[in-house]
Amino acid sequence: MSFVEFDATPLRTREQVAREVHAVALDKGLDELASAIALMTISTEVGANDENGERQWWCPANPSRDEETMNYPHDSTSDDSRSSGYLQQQPGPNGEPWWGTAYDRMTLARSVGMFFDRLPDDYRRAADNPALAGQIAQRVQRSAYPDRYAQKWAEAWEVLRRALSDDEPTPPGGNSMAWTGDPIWLEDVLRPALGDRLKTLPGWQNAGHGDFKDIRGLMWHHTGNSRESAQSIRNGRPDLPGPLSNIHIAPDGTVTIVAVGVCWHAGQGSYPWLPTNNANWHTIGIECAWPDIAPDGSYDPGQRWPDAQIIAMRDVAAALTTKLGLDVSHNIGHKEYAGAAQGKWDPGNIDMNWFRSEVAKDMRGEFDPANPPTPPVVVPPPVLPGPANPRTDRQLLEEIWDQLRGPGGNGWPQLGGKTLVDAIAELTDKKAA
C-alpha cells in the first residue's frame, strides 16, 4: 500500500470497522468467519500506524488516479494504482465498474458488501486455518502479494471479538459522538446551521412513539405533495398515526422540528447497517414537501427541486451527521431501504449518491462564505507646505489678472492689444481655416 498522507485520526476505530463489517455479514446470512476474512483483507490493504504509533485501518482516497473518490469521506490519500477505500477496490482502466462506483468503493458497508458477494461458497473450509483463509481472500482480491492476508489472521479475530464484546477502546481523538436515545439536541444543533430558517412545532420535545435506540443515520423522504405542512406530518394519516417524521422541510427551505421521539417513517425494508424492518428506532426521519400536484391529481416525476429546499436539506444532513459522528454514507433515501420491500422511490428523483457528495462538501466547509477581503488602508495625502512666497492673496490675484488681461486690463502690446485668451482664440481660428 502506498499512502501519501494521513489525517490526524481515522474515520473509524478498528472496532467500529469490525462491527460495521459484521453487520453486513449478518445481513447477507454470513458468519463471523466471513467477517474475519474481510477484516484480514482490510488490515492487509490499509493497515498502518498513526502518528502515535497505534495501528489503525484507514480509508484512503486516490486523487491522482480516481479523483471522484475525493468527494467522499476519507482519512488519508494514496497513489496505489487506481485503488481506493478500505478494500482497495478499483475501477477498470477506462472507468469500467469492476468494483462499482467511487461511492461504492469509498463507503464501507457497500465495499464490504461487494467483497462478500464474491466470497467463495466454500469459505467455511478456512475455519481455524489462517493459510486457507488468506487464499480465500486472495481469490477475491487477486493481489500481487497473495501471502500477506494470512499474516493478519490473529489481528482480525482479536479486533472482531473485542468489537462484538463491546470492549472497545476510546476512539482516537476523544470519545465517540454516537448517540443512543432521543435526539433532544435537535434545535441546539440545527439553529447555528440554519438560523431563522429553523422553526419548531409546539410540544416537539414530547412528541413521538417512544424512545430511540442507537441512532445510526438519517432517512430521507418526500411527502408526495409540496403543500403538506409540518403539522400534517405531526397529525399523521387515517391509516398511520403521527408523527410521521422528526423533521419537515418546506419548498422555501423552512425546516421545522416536528418530534423528538421515534416516528413512523421507515416501514419494512433493509440496509446493511440497519436491522431489517426496524429502522424507525435507529434513524432520524426527514420529510421534504415535494412534488407539486396539479388540479387533476397528476404530478411531474422529473420536477426540479427548489434550490432553497435542496440547500436546507444539505445543511440539515451535514449538521446532524457531524453531530452523530458518522460519515456521509449514513444518509440514505427511503428508496434505498424500502424500495424492494415497499416499492418506495422517495426522495423522488434525487440521486442519493449526488446528494451525499453535496453533504460531504458541506461537512468539509466548501459552502462556507469566503472571508471578506481586508479593505485597503487609506493613507491620507501628505499635507503640502505653504508657499514660501510672502505676497498676499490679493497681490497674487492682481498678478494673475495682469497676466490674463494685460497691463491695466487693456491687453498686451506684444499681442496687438489682445488679451492672452483672445490671442490664443485667433491663432486657433487661423489654424482651423
UniProtKB/TrEMBL annotation:
Xref: InterPro entries: Amidase/PGRP_sf (IPR036505), Amidase_domain (IPR002502), NAMLAA_amidase_2 (IPR051206)
Record protein name field: N-acetylmuramoyl-L-alanine amidase
MF-aspect GO terms: N-acetylmuramoyl-L-alanine amidase activity
Composition bias type Polar residues, residue spans: 83-92
Catalysed reaction, written as an equation: Hydrolyzes the link between N-acetylmuramoyl residues and L-amino acid residues in certain cell-wall glycopeptides
Keywords: Cell wall biogenesis/degradation, Hydrolase
Annotated N-acetylmuramoyl-L-alanine amidase domain residues: 203-348
Protein's organism: Mycobacteroides abscessus subsp. bolletii 50594
Assigned EC number: 3.5.1.28
GO terms classed as biological process: cell wall organization; peptidoglycan catabolic process; peptidoglycan turnover
